[in-house]
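Quick check before the chapter quiz. The format below is the same one you will see on the exam, so make sure you can read both the input and the output lines.
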Amino acid sequence: MECNVGLKEQKLRVLAGLTLIGIGAYYNTKALAAIGIIPILTGMVRWCPVNQALGYNGCAKKELEDYT
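Here is the expected output.
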């Protein structure tokens, strides 16, 4: 799996996932909290199947060299 999630996008994904989990916990909505796991995982792994399907790559070449 090649990196296709940039550093800024990674931080936003993790923050969005934590927010979804928090909202799900506040309103006692398990489905919303479970959906919050997806952006956290894709942010941590720095690979997203949706980005790959769309042909989007948020990683810069220099960033890729530093990551590997």
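If your answer matched, good. The CA atoms of residues 22 and 28 lie 10 Å apart.
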